[in-house]
# Entry
Amino acid sequence: RIPNPLEYRKVNVNEMWTSIVDERKYIGLDGNVYDNNVHMIYDRQENFLNQGPATMKGIEAYRMMDTVVAQNLVMTTNCKYADIVLPVASPWERYGDLSPSYRESIVWFSQVVEPLFECKSDADIALELADRIGVDRSVLRPVSEKQLIINMVAASQVSPNCDDNWQNLVSITEEDLAELGVEGEPQDGLVPILDFKRDGIFTIERSEGDGLDFIALKPFRDDPEANPRPTASGKLEIYCQAAVDKVQAFGFKEISPIPEYVPPVEGYEETFANWETKEKGEFPFQIYSLHILRHSHSTFANVPNLREAFDHPLYMNSLDAERLGMETGETVLITSKWGK
# Structure
């Protein structure tokens, strides 16, 4: 791992754009104050302009940069305001990868199609950049992507009884290595490697009383003195001075060491003109985003067939809708003090 010399100069998301556009100093992770004299933004599989605070100020910050490069699978908001967009290959266009979806299962997904047009994997893009800035690509990735995945599969181990008896997940023969076109050593295992690649998943069979149940913090629960938590008291802390000290070091505000309800900015309380009498104000509702089938967070909302298949409705309490004379299927205009 190559250490980041600027690790403690990371910018808090709430100061990201103001430190650039307004040339305001920001507080780093080490508690010191810094200038954010940035000239280039490199976005890698992110969409912070859409998901982070102050989108309009973020766009302004992007336009102040000497160069903006975005690297992504889809055309995100970040990509739209970038000078250069590097298209990334999807998981279906790469050799494959391992995904430990559940503790009882591991998934090995495989390539379906060749990369379209000029798409490259994130790793291949990194290697291409390494060539152009004089970094030895063999230091970044000494083996091919296929060899890397096979190495991961070969090194995977399973403990069927959740004890110290670990076994190789896959068995490998010389013939398997030749068919896969990779280097390696034959080994014994629970499943032939080609069967695992064909099936794409391995699951440990579960049964009642198999001993694979998980109880969080069980050693601590059974014997708190012998198994302390990594806190000042060694216990689960309701009063947490460490949290107070950390927040105070950033210089934003002071917090209580005991959990308490803090009314949020533009929260429920602010929907009232008079909180005591519960008189509603100019903007009497709160709006929040729900997960729907049409998109995933900020992604895929621009896909035509998804837009056709799924609506993007506004949900509201039926009593409020009835009072305002609204019916399902009608088009409404949503306004706030920030826009509409």
Summary: The chain has a mean pLDDT of 90.
